[in-house]
């Protein structure tokens, strides 16, 4: 299949350029296997900001059997140190035979808690949703919005556990016949990441989202969507740079039935201003 060939090409390309070199320094950990990959989950946010003078480029691509796909490009920048972080996310999609950009997210994240032997890391995020998508073509909601997410992360020997509580709000969605209505979509998520080796991790992520939408533009309906996603990630440290690739198979369950997709992931982390 096309998406299988594309995923294999990404993995082979990165592996061909990889070298065995020194790794990045992770935050303090409990006793157990060392994690060299610390901020590269797919669906569940990890509570670690970027280190000072290091920025990250993240590209993910989710393929469906019917030829539709969703992709995102994210860039994360520290603001002086790890306490404050700026990032943006640009989503692309192909649906109903059309391809376009959806609504862009501009993000700020604050490192509220650093991980310690007794407590988890916590880094709340506030995002502004910019209505850059074309609603006529089915991309985006056509109005500005806000998104809040509170992630926690804690290591238990060879297992990292992450959990999130989040909420998305669109305050002025247009109704057919006039007027506007507020839409909200809360979600909870959790993951377990097992360190088979410092640079290879097995992953299991789960997300429960309560998606509120307008039916025929006149009334709201709420659908619960449950997604379970097994996967893996593999990293290479190349001097003071890090490359991470990964793949997963998200399976979503909702009122519209079951949907299985293939998710591929690529991250390139490198220094700046040195």
Please explain how this structure is put together.
By secondary structure, the chain is mainly beta. It has a single domain, classed as monomeric porin ompg (Porin, Beta Barrel), CATH 2.40.160.40. It has one helix at 2-17, and strands spanning 54-64, 69-79, 81-95, 98-101, 104-110, 121-122, 125-130, 145-156, 159-174, 180-197, 200-215, 219-238, 241-248, 251-254, 257-271. The protein has a 15-stranded antiparallel beta sheet that branches. A hairpin with a 2-residue loop joins strand 8 and strand 9. The chain starts with a helix and ends with a strand. Mean pLDDT is 85; it is low at 1-31.
Specify the biggest β-sheet.
15 strands, antiparallel
CATH architecture assignment: Beta Barrel
* Class per helix and strand makeup: mainly beta
Give the proportion of residues in helices.
Answer: under 10%
Query: What multimeric state do the chains show?
Result: single chain
Number of helices: 1
The CATH homology group name: monomeric porin ompg
Number of domains: 1
Q: Cα-atom Rg, whole angstroms?
A: 19 Å
Low-pLDDT residue intervals, each spanning 5 or more residues: 1-31
CATH class: Mainly Beta
Shape: globular
